[in-house]
Amino acid sequence: MSLLEVRNLTKRFGGLTAVHDISFDIEQGKIVSLIGPNGAGKTTTFSMLTGLVKPSSGGIHFQGKNMVGLPMHVVSSQGIVTTFQKTKVFTTLTVEEATLIGTYNWVNTRLPDILLHNKKFCLEEQKARERVKEILQYTNLYEKRKLKCTGLSYGEQRILEIAVAMAANPVLLLLDEPAAGLNHTESQDLMNMIYGLRDSGITILLIEHDMSLVMKISQHVVVLNFGEKIAEGTPAEITNNEKVIEAYLGAGVEEE
């Protein structure tokens, strides 16, 4: 059984069909990319997978469980986690505090525990802080943990987005254009980080406009165009696929 099974997924917004009848599987421990020209339906597909948008029809099964109709926080608690984009929302928080937000997914405390600051709360908080320390060390942000998020460079803010998602203990991590705006060195560091996440057992699904990165890092690629799946396969197969070449030559290579 695949980790994620998407079957005949469709999303209509009024008279507009944004995604039509797409199906694909994601195997556990793989790095998979979802690509396509601007307006292909990638972001809408991500939104359905995370529970942000409810499909008009079709199925999403994760670890054998039906995810359709579940709210985003429930989907996240089941292990499908996406990067929290726009770290400017953390303007008043330090790097450490922002990363701690991700641990809400698994910290086992209730309101009375928090209000009473009891032993259970203290133990859970200690576990959360230890996990955050591990993540910030892994992402090379530990030395800047007391800085406000606004004090990070743009590239570091993109890494912080991943750190917050990592803190939620994802099984399947969805990355939405993680390399956008990064220079060559930062992109290489990002690639190494994604490899490390994969090696730790996390499955990766990413939208990315950097085709060089996609073809280097992906084990499987799914291609959308005008809301429909036009191809899927290995990077080599996708590179030589006539429908894919036509889609990009006809619409340019800028991602949505």
TrEMBL record:
UniProt keywords, alphabetically: ATP-binding, Nucleotide-binding, Transport
One CC-aspect GO term: plasma membrane
GO biological process, one term: L-valine import across plasma membrane
Organism: Formimonas warabiya
PROSITE patterns: ABC_TRANSPORTER_2
Record CDD domains: ABC_Mj1267_LivG_branched
InterPro entries xrefs: AAA+_ATPase, ABC_AA/LPS_Transport, ABC_transporter-like_ATP-bd, BCA_ABC_TP_C, P-loop_NTPase
Gene3D superfamilies tied to this protein: P-loop containing nucleotide triphosphate hydrolases (3.40.50.300)
One Pfam match: ABC_tran
Protein name per its UniProtKB record: ABC transporter domain-containing protein
One MF annotation (Gene Ontology) recorded for this entry: ATP binding
Record's keyword annotation contains ATP-binding: yes
Domain ABC transporter intervals: 4-251
